[in-house]
Amino acid sequence: MVFSLNLLFLFIAAMVISSIGFKNYVWFISIGYGLSIAGEGALMLILYRDSLSIATVICSALLIIYGLRLGGYLAFREMKSSSYKKNMKGEIKEGSSVPFGVKIAIWVTCALLYVTQVSGVFYRFANNAPSNVWAYVGAAVMLLGLVMESVSDIQKNKAKKVNPKRFVDTGLYKFVRCPNYLGEMIFWTGVLLSGIGAVSGWQWVIVAIGYIGIIFVMFSGARRLEIRQNKNYGSDPEYQKYVKTVPIMVPFIPLYSVEKYKWLVA
């Protein structure tokens, strides 16, 4: 079946966890996002505790680790980083100015997206699919994305401590301007791959919605970052050279800017 009661339970869990966004508007898509993914990963292990396989345990564990790392990192940045708050001032709407109805719509939409994102792993549970090579390939790709995202965040933090007023072009940032977003896309590509041989028929529609949705969000985030960096560093000749020679999202793919794509709004 495309839909099941357990899928509804995942949605409810995402709704409950991401409701943290009512305290701070941006948390719907930041801290609430990471913690929702972790919560869904844990809930799948509980719901299907009697039919676990090595592959489903690994994939669920990676979802939990991914979500806790991301949620924890974003929470620390929100609470402790004065430079981040200063840089983001004026970039993000104040929650008080957002109508309550809009907040409700964002809350529900985000929870739905978070459920579809993990659906590649969910349907391996729901269909009681045996472990196959794609489950392990997907898990390996998920791990690669998790490591890349984590390393890029660490590298950026270290670079900013040395020179907070300069753009980052060291480490993974030598090869792509948004390696953290690339790591995220790789992670969710792994989730997609893990569903091969387990997902069937119309279930692929739900999986595809989640995958396409998060890829769109990542490119939208890259566009916002590019606009902000152009504003901050646009007069720096080194920055101009950097953005014209280093791809914005994927290494070796000559896409250097997405600023002009105004449809990338999320």
Summarize the structure in short.
With 266 residues, this protein is mainly alpha-helical.
Structure commentary:
- The chain is mainly α and 266 residues long.
- The protein has one domain.
- The protein is built from nine helices and no strands.
- The protein is globular and about 60 Å long.
- The two termini are 30 Å apart.
- The model has no long low-confidence stretch (mean pLDDT 91).
Show the helix and strand layout:
Layout (H helix, E strand, L loop, with lengths): L4 H14 L12 H17 L6 H27 L1 H7 L11 H27 L6 H30 L16 H16 L8 H31 L3 H9 L21
Helix pairs in contact: 1-2, 1-5, 2-3, 2-5, 3-5, 3-6, 5-7, 5-8, 6-7, 7-8
Features of this protein?
single chain, about 270 residues, mainly alpha, 9 helices, about 0% strand, globular
Shape: globular
Proportion in helices: 55-70%
Number of strands: 0
What's the gyration radius in Å?
Answer: 19 Å
Q: How can the largest sheet be summarized?
A: none
Structural class: mainly alpha
| Residue share in β-strands | under 5%
Domain unit count: 1
Q: Which residues form runs of ≥5 with pLDDT under 50?
A: none
In DSSP terms (H or I, runs of 4 or more residues), the helix count works out at: 9
Order of helices and strands: HHHHHHHHH
Q: For the residues shown, what is the average pLDDT?
A: 91
C-alpha termini separation: 30 Å
